[in-house]
Amino acid sequence: MKFTWDSNKAEKVKKDHKIDFEKIKDVFEDTFSLDLIDDSYSTKDEERFIIIGKTAFTVLFIWFIQCRTMMKFVLLPPEKPKGGMLKNMKTTYEELETEEELKARGLRRIKRRFQPKPGETASIKCQVIAEVKIDADLFNFLKNESKKHNSEIEDLLNEILREKFEKAEAKKSAEIKELRSKLLNDTEFLQELKEKLAA
Asked: Over the stretch 36-66, which tens digit does the pLDDT of each residue have?
């Protein structure tokens, strides 16, 4: 299951609600969350769900869409869905007893259909939908390479960026390790540190 969100919506939510989408996904790890279907904002092709749960920093109330391979966060407050876009797993949920107050608001309680595995909400497992402008010749290169390797352009771009990212992380790690080694062998620094800690 991939957690996916739109970068523009993420920026708006962060600005309006002071909530980072990077942390929102953690709510799905709360095994005591309240899970609902919002009939008021659902269509026959696209059901919208609500989860109310706790993260490490707060309690969150989130609208989202779920299909077979993707968990998509929706802008708050919810927009009316156009329908037919995701074709989710409709009617595969198990309904639970729902309080009358929730029913009056067009909500139904359901049993959680998806519980993230450890590490499944880590950034490396998530995807952000973003509009990026690149030079035309580079786009043509990506398009031709993706055809050659029978893959999607975004997969190829991810592969290229992932390699660059991992090299940068490895370099940073090596620099930190070298600095730590120098400090641990610097008697003057260690003495100053000892004096400060004793103060």
From this structure: 888 877 777 777 888 888 887 778 887 777 6
Do β-strands 107-109 and 70-73 pair in parallel, antiparallel, or remain unpaired?
unpaired
Q: Which two tokens stand for residue 33?
A: 């969350």
Q: 93: Cβ–Cβ under 8 A, 6 or more apart, which residues?
A: 37, 110, 111, 113
Burial of 37 (0-12, 13-18, 19+ CB in 10 A): buried
State the Cα–Cα distance between residues 6 and 127, nearest whole angstrom: 9
Q: Give the single-character DSSP code of 147.
A: H
The tokens for 162 are 């992932």
6 bridge partner residues: 129
Q: What is the DSSP letter of 76?
A: S
State the pTM of this model. 0.54
Helices (H), the chain: 7-17, 21-24, 100-104, 136-148, 153-184, 187-198
β 2-6/70-73 pair status: parallel
